[in-house]
Design brief:
Bound molecules: iron/sulfur cluster
Number of domains of chain B: 3
Helix content of chain B: 25-40%
Number of helices of chain A: 8
InterPro entries (chain B): 3-IsopropMal_deHydase_lsu, Acnase/IPM_dHydase_lsu_aba_1/3, Acoase/IPM_deHydtase_lsu_aba, Aconitase_4Fe-4S_BS, Aconitase_4Fe-4S_dom, IPM_dehydratase_rel_enz, IPMI_cat
CATH class of the largest domain in chain B: Alpha Beta
Number of domains of chain A: 1
Number of strands of chain B: 19
Protein name (chain B): 3-isopropylmalate dehydratase large subunit
Structural class of chain A: alpha/beta
GO molecular function (chain B): 3-isopropylmalate dehydratase activity
EC number (chain B): 4.2.1.33
Helix content of chain A: 25-40%
Number of strands of chain A: 7
CATH topology of the largest domain in chain B: Aconitase, domain 3
CATH superfamily of the largest domain in chain B: Aconitase, domain 3
Family (chain B): Belongs to the aconitase/IPM isomerase family. LeuC type 1 subfamily.
Radius of gyration of chain A: 19 Å
Largest sheet of chain B: 5 strands, parallel
Strand order of the largest sheet of chain A: 4-3-2-1-5-6-7
Number of helices of chain B: 17
Shape of chain B: globular
CATH class of chain A: Alpha Beta
Distance between the termini of chain B: 60 Å
Oligomer: heterodimer
Distance between the termini of chain A: 35 Å
Largest interface: A-B, 51 and 68 residues
CATH superfamily of chain A: Aconitase, domain 4
Order of helices and strands of chain A: EHHEHEHEHEEEHHH
């Protein structure tokens, strides 16, 4: 059901704040939008546009070099707060396929893996360095190679990252978890029979 | 040989393991799946695959997020997109055959208020819901956590969920809470102490004499905001308070089955010697009525303190962050918090919309008047809470004091039903999140407990409720 995860090469768009919450990434008033609606247009809506609809000039998504970025850089605890998967849909809908940050809100990271938005954890110093590079050299490109599990920063330095092997396989092959679980129907049925007996 | 001592979390986890995957993730069986009116996309995902629900009998739903709290008639929702959210839940319930406590049902309410209230949430269960504050139900000794929409679809189809085993953290709060200090203050204090990422990747078990001494309502508040500390879930070991709360509720066993259940629930507490990955101890006596000044729940201080000064920040990054928050909040460093005027007051939400919360707020409102120019709302957490409050005459106290008395729902906690503040307005709120724009674009939120919110309503400013209590 998912598109296979590509080898990514793109400018990196820095959101250089700690604790950016999902209420900022996708404000609550867009939560009722259908899954196939244009969530990307609502990404960071209230930080990206003034109340009159004009663009906030220096917000990263409005900087000419970064408009088509597919890789985001974030601070500590990126996308904490509400469990809204819509925040992932907004990042993905805008074109992002990976977010590199020192740490993530738990549910966001899980949601990302299930929707083709790869959360990449790198040490805080490395992310800070990459953010500094992006600001100094907005056109500099970063590569995220999921197969090799490495990030190549704009300065050419290579940084390995960890990813859950199953999620990696699902992302690379475009398989979704539900099909896998459904193939274990019998195990679930056996558990349910036991559950009935134990009565809990 | 004795088996290894286990934590309560481990006991619940072990009991729900269906199978393990080579990467170390565990397929867990879900006892209760709670749904609200924001779940439509998960049903779309299910439909797109031609899949039916596996266990509708384990699934319970109620509309809360999108329903305005001035009417109970879905057809009266003016915004068609919001109306559709409520109606689609009704259609899905009819098509799939799960229980729905709809708008005309006396059991309707915020999903996290309704679950415990109906005895759907029980000790030892695994409970999930597509909403981060599912952690609330852990107050009963369940393992309860919020999941994303794709995961909701996965649970609908398989009644199971893949999870990597989280770490455990024990937060012991010892001693007695001071006058006017509630569970809300305890959890704000915990979050201010460990930070919003302080418990990321962990399940918290709350323990200690101050936690044991909390009512069930208080424990629900405590576990509710556990997510604001970054944790997946919070738990409190079931005890006499838990059993007394559950006994006689709609979905709870009776007779011999009740006795057997209680015996089983007693064995859930962490074994002596069980090992936690982390341990935090706090002194209850140091906790004051607490209020937030910034745009993250961790920016919380005692109500009698001053707005912190960014100049004293430990790092330039933190300084910039604090300056940004103060600019958004319209506050100056050094200003006394208890002088800050409010425009609106919101008493409600799954954090503080239960009967005990309304009693505490009514205690302050009784015989007083909402200050000139302040709009104050009381939104019960459920239809049942509303009836109970009316039976006790609390609605009359609120109305006479000038509060609006509304129907049950999430309302201004999130504002997805259209109930939001105007840009620049300052709200004293008993909800759980004070992020920028959470209660409407440009709106400034101060989180606090229900009595404090009522105090803010009658004085027109953030107020140390202990002052009003002395005044009587
Ligand atoms: S009251 Fe607020 S936090 Fe609770 S379920 Fe509703 S929107 Fe979520």
């Amino acid at each position: 059901m998912m598109e296979p995860f590509p080898r990514l090469r793109s400018v990196a768009v820095p959101f250089a704040r700690d604790n950016i919450d999902t209420d900022q990434i996708l404000p609550a008033r867009f939560l009722h939008l259908a899954r196939d609606a244009d969530h990307g247009a609502c990404l960071f809506r209230d930080l990206r546009y003034h109340a009159d609809g004009s663009e906030v000039e220096d917000f990263p998504l409005n900087r000419p070099a970064w408009r088509a970025g597919r890789i985001a850089l974030g601070g500590e605890n990126f996308a904490c707060g509400s469990s809204r998967e819509n925040a992932v849909w907004a990042m993905h809908g805008h074109g992002f396929r990976a977010v590199i940050a020192p740490s993530f809100g738990d549910i966001f990271a899980q949601n990302g893996l299930k929707n083709g938005l790869l959360p990449v954890r790198l040490p805080a110093e490395t992310v800070a360095m990459m953010i500094a590079q992006a600001e100094a050299m907005p056109e500099g490109e970063v590569t995220v190679d999921l197969e090799a599990q490495t990030v190549t920063a704009a300065d050419g330095t290579i940084h390995p990252f960890e990813v859950d092997p199953f999620a990696r396989k699902c992302l690379l092959e475009g398989i979704d978890e539900m099909s896998f679980t459904l193939s274990h129907h019998e195990d679930i049925a056996a558990f349910e029979r036991r559950l009935g007996r134990e009565n809990f | 040989m004795n088996p290894e001592p286990r934590t309560m979390f481990e006991k619940v986890w072990d009991r729900h393991r269906v199978l393990e995957r080579e990467d170390g993730q565990t397929l867990l069986y879900v006892d209760r799946h709670l749904l609200h009116d924001g779940t439509a996309p998960a049903f779309e995902m299910l439909k797109a695959r031609g899949q039916k629900m596996r266990a509708p009998g384990r699934t319970f739903a109620t509309p809360d997020h999108y329903m305005p709290t001035d009417t109970r008639i879905a057809a009266e929702i003016p915004d068609p997109a919001l109306r559709e959210m409520v109606l689609s839940l009704e259609r899905n319930a009819a098509a799939e055959g799960f229980a729905l406590y709809g708008l005309d049902d006396p059991r309707q309410g915020i999903v996290h208020v309704v679950g415990p209230e109906l005895g759907l949430s029980q000790p030892g269960m695994i409970i999930v819901c597509g909403d981060s504050h599912t952690s609330t139900h852990g107050a009963l000794g369940a393992l309860a956590f919020g999941i994303g929409m794709t995961e909701v679809a996965h649970v609908l189809a398989t009644q199971c969920l893949w999870q990597r085993k989280p770490k455990t953290m024990r937060i012991a709060i010892e001693g007695a809470l001071g006058a006017g200090v509630t569970a809300k203050d305890v959890i704000l204090h915990v979050i201010a102490t460990i930070g919003t990422a302080g418990a990321t990747g962990h399940v918290i078990e709350y323990a200690g004499s101050a936690v044991r001494g909390l009512s069930m309502e208080g424990r629900l508040t405590l576990c509710n905001m556990t997510i604001e500390a970054g944790a997946r879930a919070g738990m409190v070991a079931p005890d006499e308070t838990t059993f007394a709360f559950l006994e006689g509720r709609e979905n709870v066993p009776t007779g011999a089955a009740w006795d057997a259940a209680v015996a089983r629930w007693r064995s859930l507490a962490s074994d002596p010697g069980a090992v936690f990955d982390r341990f935090v101890e706090l002194d209850a006596a140091t906790i004051a009525p607490t209020v937030t000044w910034g745009t993250s729940p961790q920016e919380a201080v005692a109500v009698d303190s001053r707005v912190p000064d960014p100049a004293a920040a430990p790092s330039p990054g933190r300084r910039a962050e604090m300056e940004e928050m103060l600019a958004y909040m319209g506050l100056s460093p050094g200003q006394l918090l208890a002088e800050v005027a409010v425009d609106r007051v919101f008493i409600g939400s799954c954090t503080n919309g239960r009967i005990e919360d309304l009693r505490a707020a009514a205690g302050v409102a009784r015989g007083r008047q909402v200050a000139e120019g302040v709009t104050a709302w009381v939104v019960p957490g459920s239809a049942q809470v509303k009836r109970q409050a009316e039976a006790e005459g609390l609605d009359r106290i609120f109305r006479e004091a000038g509060f609006a008395w509304r129907e049950a729902g999430c309302s201004m906690c999130l504002g997805t039903n259209g109930e939001i503040g105007r840009p620049g307005e300052r709200i004293a709120s008993t909800s759980n999140r004070n992020f920028r724009g959470r209660q409407g674009p440009g709106v400034r939120t101060h989180l606090m407990n229900p009595a404090m919110a009522a105090a803010a309503a009658v004085t027109g400013r953030i107020t140390d409720v202990r002052r009003l209590m002395e005044a009587g």
